[in-house]
From TrEMBL:
SUPFAM superfamilies hit by this protein: Metallo-hydrolase/oxidoreductase
Domain Metallo-beta-lactamase span(s) in chain numbering: 38-82
Pfam families for this protein: Lactamase_B (PF00753)
InterPro entries named in the record: Metallo-B-lactamas, RibonucZ/Hydroxyglut_hydro
UniProt protein name: Metallo-beta-lactamase domain-containing protein
Length: 82
């Protein structure tokens, strides 16, 4: 597991958190989602755009995170992408 303070790559940050670069508008580091996976439930901090949902769903599937586990969606700010 990467112990860097700043991460730019998609993947698991620590035991509970994942960083997902959705590559918004085809550009890396343009649009990120933070995923928290805890005992029996998951949360999303920011969610990306409807244009990028397939990328997020692929990440969840690849990491065996069922959609039924999501309990909270937290937005960090009001913006056109969420």
């Amino acid at each position: 597991m990467d112990e860097s303070v700043i991460t730019i790559n998609s993947g698991k940050i620590n035991e509970y958190l994942h960083h997902i670069d959705l590559k918004g508008f085809g550009t890396t580091r343009m649009l990120s989602v933070i995923l928290g996976v805890f005992d029996g439930y998951s949360i999303l901090i920011d969610c990306g755009t409807s244009l990028d949902i397939k990328k997020a769903l692929r990440y969840f599937k690849r990491h065996q995170i069922p959609l039924s586990s999501f309990k909270y969606l937290i937005t960090s700010h009001h913006h056109a992408d969420h």
